[in-house]
Design a protein that fits this description.
2 domains, Calcineurin-like_PHP, transmembrane helix, six-stranded mixed beta sheet, 387 residues, Purple Acid Phosphatase, chain A, domain 2, Metallo-depent_PP-like, alpha/beta
């Protein structure tokens, strides 16, 4: 039984979402009806409603097998993913288009003329955004940061770390994109590979079905491959299975634990913020760092970059996060910029070098505007203080 407050919030969301879908659908109907003189508005409305809820349909049915249900669910999820991008940019473009149409109407332009002209411009702009956004999503860039840690790393002077956060392996992102990751890492030749959460996109079923482990197992580095949990691993609810799958291919998932690598530096893996809503919870950064040899460099992975002050106070030298996607598509980056002290890039805070990646994969539509799919390369120099 839903609590009244929660029920009210859900009802308000559904009403608001329904009105937005109606607004987009109405504009689409005016344009198409002007072009083709359509008659069956009911069929059109049904198609719009189906598209608007297709992600939920796909999400609910993607694990179902038999009678083509699983395939149909994956198609619905793909359509629904692209719908999210269409929804956002339509809501940005259509009000301007409606104002332009009113201006043209007052200037004496016929309704057929201004509807077709303005509507076509909107469609072309929307298409251009989706095409460019798809290129940004499927063409990863390498972002390099060079940092100096003033600690002794057991005689090690240099360390090259490859970081791939937010891969989101699932229905949308799969083996083809993984090949791009492997190609870049082969060129980079890192000493260490770190995966700061959201390796899978909630449900583990597509990962298993598409045998993605055959590509993930090719992630190799002399000092190992380590990962932490992200919020989407918690959303999927298959954490034990996920951890076992990673372990089987040589990737260790650190869950509120640390490991001393090559007797040189520590990697600390923190559970995602989502763990705070579970019975076991998660440890603070100070608790994770307690008992470690602080004369050694401390490298922390925490999926969400929500505790930079805490990292600095705990003596962390390098923190690596993702989660934000830098908003994934503009103007969402204005929101992530306000939500996080650092939503993308690099920040030097005391002795802490904080780095946040926009992520290698995507959530929802494989579209990025004002952000790129990226792999982070961290070039670390260790310079112990003079005795």
């Amino acid at each position: 039984m839903l609590k009244p407050k929660l029920a009210g919030m859900i009802a308000s969301f559904l009403i608001a979402y329904g009105l937005l879908v109606w607004y987009i659908g109405w504009n689409g109907w005016v344009y198409l009806n002007t072009l083709f003189e359509l008659e069956n508005r009911g069929v059109y409305a049904a198609v719009i409603v189906l598209i608007a809820i297709s992600y939920l349909i796909g999400r609910a049915g993607q694990s179902v097998s038999g009678f083509g249900i699983g395939l149909a669910a994956r198609v619905f999820k793909l359509i629904g993913s692209y719908w999210f991008a269409v929804l956002e940019y339509a809501l940005l473009l259509l009000p301007v288009a409606n104002i332009a149409a009113l201006i043209l109407k007052t200037l004496g332009v016929t309704s057929r003329q201004y509807v077709i002209v303005v509507g076509t411009i909107v469609i072309l702009m929307l298409g251009a955004l989706l095409i460019r956004g798809s290129w940004n999503a499927w063409t990863p860039a390498v972002q390099t940061y060079r940092v100096t840690v003033n600690k002794d790393a057991g005689g090690r002077k240099k360390l090259r770390i490859a970081v791939a956060s937010d891969i989101h392996l699932g229905t949308i992102v799969g083996n083809r994109h993984l090949k791009r990751l492997l190609k870049e890492l082969d060129r980079m030749k890192p000493d260490l590979i770190l995966l700061p959460g959201d390796v899978i996109d909630d449900d583990i079923e597509p990962y298993i079905r598409n045998n993605m482990s055959e590509y993930m197992r090719k992630l190799k580095a002399p000092l190992g491959v380590y990962a932490v949990l992200g919020n989407h691993e918690y959303i999927g609810g298959h954490i034990p299975r996920y951890v076992e799958e990673m372990k089987a291919i040589g990737i260790r998932v650190l869950m509120d634990e640390s490991v001393l690598v090559d007797d040189s530096f520590y990697i600390i893996g923190r559970k995602d913020l989502s763990a705070g809503r579970t019975p076991e919870g998660r440890l603070s950064t100070a608790e994770l760092a307690a008992g470690l040899d602080e004369s050694r460099p401390l490298i922390l992975m925490d999926h969400q970059p929500s505790d930079l002050d805490e990292y600095a106070e705990a003596g962390i030298d390098i923190s690596l996060s993702g989660h934000t996607h830098r908003g994934q598509f503009a103007p969402n980056h204005w929101i992530t910029r306000r939500l996080f002290e650092l939503d993308h890039g690099y920040l030097h805070k005391g002795s802490l070098h904080a780095i946040v990646s926009s992520g290698f994969g995507t959530w929802g539509p494989p579209v990025r505007i004002a952000s790129r799919s990226e792999i982070v390369q961290v070039e670390v120099t260790f310079e112990p203080p003079a005795p």
